[in-house]
Design a protein that fits this description.
mainly alpha, 6 helices, 65% helix, 196 residues, two-stranded antiparallel sheet
C-alpha cells in the first residue's frame, strides 16, 4: 500500500514539475510593494533552507531509489523557485555571504522532519500571503508556489509514513513562521555544513 501511495505521489509530482517551468515563465512579473516584500523575502530565504534540507536528505541513508528520485526532483524545482523569488527582490535577495545554512539531520527520520517542517511553514506563509499581498502578480506567484509546495508536503508525508492528507494549511504570518528557519541559519564565520 505504501509503495502504491509513493508511486501515485511520484506521478503527480512529476506532472507538476513538467508543467511548472512553462506555466511560471508565462506569468506576469511580480512587483511586490509594501508588506508584499516580506512574503517574497521569507519565501526566498525559506526555499533556500528547503533546498539545503533536500540536499542533506540525499546524503543520508534509508531512502529508496524512488524516494531519492522524488527528493532530487523536488530539490531541482525548489532551486528554480529560489530564482523566481530572487528576481523581484533584486539586490535585496538573500545572499550566501549573509549566513550559512546548516541542516544537521543524519537519519531518514531527521531529514524528513526538517523537510516536513520547512514545507509546512512555506505553505502556511504562502497561504497567508495570497490573502494579504497588494500586487496581483506577486499574489499569483505566491499562489503557484503554494500549490507546488503543498504537493511536496504531501510527498514528504507519504515518505514519513503519514497520511498524505494534511488538511488545509493554516495561514500564518512571516513573524510566526520565521522561527522555523532560525535553527538552520548561522552567522557567517561559523562552520558551514550544507549550502544550496
Amino acid at each position: 500500500m505504501q509503495r502504491l501511495r509513493v508511486g501515485a505521489v511520484l506521478g503527480v509530482v512529476l506532472l507538476a514539475i513538467a508543467a511548472a517551468p512553462g506555466a511560471l515563465a508565462a506569468a506576469p512579473a511580480p512587483t511586490p510593494v509594501g508588506d508584499d516584500v516580506g512574503f517574497v523575502s521569507f519565501g526566498a530565504l525559506a526555499e533556500r533552507v528547503s533546498v539545503a534540507a533536500y540536499t542533506q536528505a540525499l546524503r543520508v541513508r534509508g531512502f529508496s531509489r524512488r524516494e531519492r528520485a522524488l527528493l532530487s526532483a523536488a530539490r531541482a524545482v525548489k532551486q528554480r523557485e529560489v530564482r523566481l523569488l530572487d528576481a523581484p527582490l533584486g539586490g535585496d535577495a538573500p545572499r550566501s555571504d549573509d549566513f550559512h545554512i546548516v541542516v544537521p539531520a543524519t537519519t531518514k527520520a531527521g531529514a524528513l522532519g526538517s523537510i516536513l517542517g520547512l514545507d509546512r511553514a512555506l505553505c502556511s506563509v504562502y497561504a497567508y500571503g495570497t490573502s494579504q499581498t497588494q500586487d496581483p502578480a506577486t499574489r499569483l506567484l505566491l499562489a503557484r508556489l503554494l500549490a507546488g509546495d503543498a504537493q511536496f508536503l504531501t510527498q514528504d508525508r507519504v515518505m514519513a509514513g503519514l497520511s498524505p492528507h494534511a488538511g488545509l494549511p493554516a495561514p500564518l504570518d512571516v513573524d510566526t513562521e520565521g522561527a522555523v528557519l532560525d535553527p538552520y541559519l548561522q552567522p557567517v564565520g561559523t562552520p558551514q555544513e550544507v549550502t544550496p
